[in-house]
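Recap from last week: sequence in, structure out.
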Amino acid sequence: MRRRLEFPHPFFSSRPAWKWFILSTVLLGATMSALDVSIVNVAMPTLQGTFGVSMAVIEWVAIAYMLTLTIFLPLFGRLADMYGRSRLYNVGFVVFSVGSFLCGLSSSAGFMIFARVVQAVGAGLLQANSVAIITYAFPAKERGKAIGIQGAVQAISMSVGPFVGGILIASVGWRAIFYINIPIGLLGTVAAILILPPNQQVKDKGTVDYLGTALFASGLGLLVLGFNEGVKFGWGSRTIITYFTSSIVLMALFVITELRVKHPLIDLRLFRNATFLFGNLTGMLSYYVLFAVMFLMPFYMEKVLGYSTALTGSLLTPIPLAMALVAPFAGHISDKRGSKLMTTLGMGVAAVACAALMCLRATVSMPVLVATLILLGVGMGLFTPPNNSAIMGAAPKEKLGTAGGVLNMMRSLGLIFGVDISGVIFTTLEHHYLSSQGFPNVHHVFRSATIPLIVKDDAFMHGFAYVVGVLLVLTVASLLLSGTTKSQPLDAEAAEAAKASMLE
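Predicted structure tokens:
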């Protein structure tokens, strides 16, 4: 009887050094998913012009990705516990590669949004399993180093994403920013099959909260859709009222369901702890601010300042780069002094950055612009690790994995609403300004030949200033909330969970 070929072969997988091959495989997935988050931002103005759609439509290229990721991350984590993390990680590489290929083929905004949903499903399968695979492969004394390496690779990938995206769009075309994922995905798929540890057999698989998942997905989707379509239909229209009312009802049913089922999608009881509640709230607001800026700045740089796509991508790089450089320092200080000092300092710096962004005009010195973006990245880098530590320190030891999942979910919600609500505020005020200047019902402002360029610039800056004003209010509110939280010292297990949560 012939023996079945086994991957990975026990001769190799039993060697102590094999864990580094496992880490390298996980790093391929981390690089691909992190690169995609930042590389798409710089392409937004190009995609809007290519497909000839409004900002409210092109927002869905970002929103659809993060909405799908937010909905499926908790579900995929649960499925991985039941059916094997390596198996789902393998599938994640394949699905993400297929989604990237479809994105590159897109000939309309609608197809692009669909392809981004496919891509996000793959990203969810990767993100829900990466840290768990590392945790399984590495002993406790080396786990922190391995997770730190993953974090460094993700930070570098996010930092170079805008730069690489700008260069690819300028030299090859926007489709290249998606096709670049395919060779990485193919290499990752082969590596995952040959290298990742075999799936462990789980005796008590439990159940999946499919009802909670359906209620959460539909309720959140209708809420986002209501905000996105409010300008189009009118905020008092029957359609928008139906969206918001249905969302409230579905979310209420979701809460009731989660409090009753044995294995909830999201353990809402964790929010009874004030530190956990306020930490997650401020974390969500911080990502609202960060990604609102990351979404609007390419339009400002390209449409108003007239910068090239390549230059725009280069100028967006300082934000994630500053975050990556400052974050380890902030984490170290918070370990020694507690999280409150660094979270309040971080939000204070971010508030100063938002105040500086409010002062931007249709012409600006490039050093001033870069300094402002660096300041925002420094503020977010100072805030994020200590805030994660406070959240994880407030969670019971037996629920650290669940707490990390909630933290990632709240961060994703901040990203979604940062793009969606900021886009609504901007579009509403931009159109209101144009109407006051005698140009009503304009859907594609910068493509209109009848509107003078100076009016277009003024309309953009009018909406932009109000959006940044809202961001300033949110950073100040986060600063005040951060000052009320009580940081608790983390034991080794909680510290690793906090670090892992930051890296996803």
